[in-house]
Every structure is written in structure tokens, then in C-alpha cells.
Amino acid sequence: MPVQLHTSPHTLQLLFEAVQLQNIFEDGKTFPDCLPKRSLAEIASDYEAQKNVANFDLKKFVLQNFSLPEAPTTTYQSDSSHSASEHIHELWNVLMRKPDQSTGALIPLPHPYVVPGGRFREIYYWDSFFTLLGLKVSGRTDLIQHMVKNFAYLIDTVGYIPNGNRTYYLGRSQPPFFALMVNVLAGLKKNILPTYLPQLEKEYNFWMRGSTEVTATQPALHRVVRMPDGSLLNRYWDEHDTPRPESYKEDVELARHAIQKPEVLYRHLRAAAESGWDFSSRWFKDENLFSTIHTTEIIPVDLNCLLFYLEKLISLAHHESGNQTQATKFLQLANTRKAAIRAYCWNVDQNFFVDYDFVAQQQKQALTLAAVFPLYFELATPEQALGVETILGTQFLRAGGLTTTLFNSGQQWDAPNGWAPLQWMSYRGLLNYGFDELANEIKNRWLKTNEKVYTETGKMMEKYNVYGNQAEGGGGEYPNQDGFGWTNGVYLAMQEL
């Protein structure tokens, strides 16, 4: 089923720009999610004819021609007498969506799936792995299999897994967690790795596109970067260099205050959206200035750990399929990447893993929870793991769990916010190296934070303030969202261990 673009409002350039820049809707994601009531060509023609007429009312025009995105009808209300775990077990069906028809910007999926909640009315890529952890605890193998099949379908039809199943997300992906999702399913059903080997390899080829064309003088192409020693590492990227449709006004306004060219800035913003960390001072040259964002110049330690795991799982899938030549090839690729991650992303002075600026040919100085990924995937040496554990315990651990960074920039992926996926990666990473005491302290503090807000609101949140009494998180381009897929999943998974 080909992806249809012609029914999405974001393709109506002049009308779309007017609606977004004039703040017709409070949330920039609302209009891209609207459904046209008739053909876009007719709407565009009428807009051109009417827009300069006296007393033209843009909002009225939009409401006459588009249906606002509807929240699925539900009578669900959380029961204050239920525990957080009971609440989440019940919530899966509320957050579940049935297979779609092609409407508006939505890319239809053939199987049921779970959305995060709140304004996020579609599937999201890396969120879904952490959701799967909770579905496993709830015994929902059916939904786990549906989700994996949907992502395999996206790889087969789009060529990769987009940020979410919306046409305005095409051009970028998100942190490549598909291999981890396949592995969850492999723990529940037989012969899973060979079944999904074609899609695992297609995803790998997407991330490695350009790997045979990069040179010492032209070291970066798409998501691949050739390092000075000849090894290949990866960066985040987007095929487009225009404002994000769902955050159009914010991107245009930032470009007005930036020194770098708008198209360069937009690509950096989109690449940061691909990272899932949108936004964090981690991506800034000057941590105080959002306009200095330079995401595509950065080798992120977490992305490369995920691709290390993808290489390892492809190797294992080939081994199970009886192809030892390919199994050996991908294991060698994984080992080469592991050596490169250690070479470029381990900061000897700080005793911590960091990102690498390949344009400046120097390490980034920001300390962030991305440093736990080498522990989660067991590619850190014992000495490196000890260094990370020490800094996590002395600088990142707060009353409510781990802070994402040590700097408060006002961006949502910085202090004082904590996020479920990073608590999970930290917790399991520390357990991998025998740091049970700190791991369990993180778990206990995080669960108490979740429970405190649940008791007060009846909801699980997208993010939390881990620094003190105000436990709901803040910052970013939109209000804190309730639902919430990955918080639910990590809560249940931590409760079980």
C-alpha cells in the first residue's frame, strides 16, 4: 500500500504557512493532523480566491474545510482506588488503536497498535520499545506481535521506520530500537529472528546509506560519517531542510534569531527530532543558545550503541538461519563499531561517555544520560562502567530518579526532567555490570515519583521533574502529556524486577 501524501494539510504550502504562523491553533500539531472535507486542490483554489477579500476569516475558512483531529471516543476514567499497575493494565486498551484507513496525514497500519497518549495520536518509533516492556508484563503477546509487524510493514513500504506514522514525519526516523523489539518477541515465540531478518537488514541499510561513498575529504553523507581512522560511525539526519510541519512557527521564529542559514538550522532541528531528544542543550554549541544547534555535526554515543546492537542481532539471525559467512561479517562490523565508540566517545578526563563533534574533531563536553547506553549494550570496559556509575551516583541521581543532563536550559530533555526510557537504560545498564545498589536506588526513586503524580492526578506522565517536590515535568514546545506509553511500560517492567 503506497503512502499517500495528497490528503495531508501540510502539503498546502501557502495556506499551511498562514495557519501555522498566525497561531490559528494553540498547538502546531493540530492543523497537520486535520482531515480535509474535500479535495486539497479545491481548498487551495478557494483560499487563493478569498484570502485577500475584506473581512476574510482564516480560522473560519479552516474550520469550514477541515475536520479537527478527534480523540477516540472513550468513557474511560481512572479509578482512584486502583494502584498504578492496575491502572496501566487497564489503560492498554484505551491507548490501543485499530488498523487504519488512509486519512489525512496518517500512514495507515495493518495491525492494532498502542499510541503514547495526549497529543500523540499515532505510533512513535522508539517509544514503542518501552511500551512493549509493559505489554510483556501484562501478558499482551498479541499486541507485541502486532506492533512488531507494523514496524516491519513500515520498513517494507517506506524503506525505514519514520518518527511516527504521519506523512509529515517522512524524511527522518528515530533511535533504531526495532532490533530490541524483535528480540522481545523472540523471547516469547520461536523462529522470530530469521523471520524478521529481511527487515533488520533493510533498516541497517537505511542507516548505513552512503557508507561506500564517504571519503577522507567528504566524510559525511546522509547518516554515515567516516572517522579520521577510517572507521564508520553514524549521526542523526533528515532528508529535508525546511521547518517541521508540526512545529512550523517555532522553527521559523528560531531561524530569525540564528546566525546560521535557515535551511542549515532546519536540518539540525529535524535531526534532533530524529534523535528523540527534541530538544536538549546536548545538541547546542553554546548550551545557553538554542540557535547554535548543530545536531548533524555530532556523533551520538547512544545511536551508535543501538547500531552496534543491530549489527549483533543481524549476526545472530544469520547464525540461526545457517549463514555463517554473513554472521561473521556482521559480528566483525559490530566489533569494529565497538572499538570506534570507545575511541571517540570515551572521555578519559571526565571518566564518562560523551558525544563527538566530528566537524571540530573534538569531544562534546556535556554530560548526559546517553552515557548509559554502552553499559546497557555491554560494550563498556569494567573500568569505564565504574566511571559512569560513579558520576551517575554523585551528579545525576536526584530525589525523583536520574536527571537527563546536568544543565537546565529550559529544553525538555535537560535538567530538571527525567524520562522513563533513560531510567530504564540506566537501571539495566548498571545491573549488567553488577552495580545493583545504585540501580535499585534509581528504580525505587523513579517508581515513587510515578506513584506520587499518579496519586495526585490519576495519570502517568510523559516526563517528570526529578529534582524536588514539583514532580510533573516541564519545558519544551508543548505541555506535559498524560497517557503515557513508555512511562507505563517502564513502570510495569521495573515493578516486576
Description:
The strands form seven sheets. A three-stranded antiparallel β-sheet has the order 5-6-7. The protein has a three-stranded antiparallel β-sheet with strand order 8-11-12. Strands 1-2 form a two-stranded antiparallel sheet. It is mainly alpha-helical and 497 residues long. The mean pLDDT is 94. The longest helix has 22 residues, at 324-345. Strand 11 and strand 12 form a beta hairpin. Among the domains are: 9-67, no CATH class; 245-296, no CATH class; 368-497, no CATH class. The chain is 46% helix and 7% strand. It has helices at residues 13-21, 40-50, 58-65, 84-95, 125-137, 141-158, 178-186, 192-207, 248-256, 262-275, 301-321, 324-345, 373-376, 382-396, 420-432, 436-457, 485-496; strands spanning 35-36, 66-67, 96-97, 113-114, 220-221, 224-226, 232-234, 298-299, 346-347, 352-353, 356-357, 362-363, 397-398, 401-402, 417-418, 464-465.
Name the descriptors.
mainly alpha; 3-stranded antiparallel sheet; globular
Could you outline the blueprint of secondary structure elements for this entry?
Blueprint: H1 13-21, E1 35-36, H2 40-50, H3 58-65, E2 66-67, H4 84-95, E3 96-97, E4 113-114, H5 125-137, H6 141-158, H7 178-186, H8 192-207, E5 220-221, E6 224-226, E7 232-234, H9 248-256, H10 262-275, E8 298-299, H11 301-321, H12 324-345, E9 346-347, E10 352-353, E11 356-357, E12 362-363, H13 373-376, H14 382-396, E13 397-398, E14 401-402, E15 417-418, H15 420-432, H16 436-457, E16 464-465, H17 485-496
Antiparallel strand pairs: 1-2, 3-4, 5-6, 6-7, 8-11, 9-10, 11-12, 13-14, 15-16
Helix pairs in contact: 4-17, 5-6, 5-7, 5-17, 6-7, 7-8, 7-11, 8-11, 9-10, 11-12, 15-16, 15-17
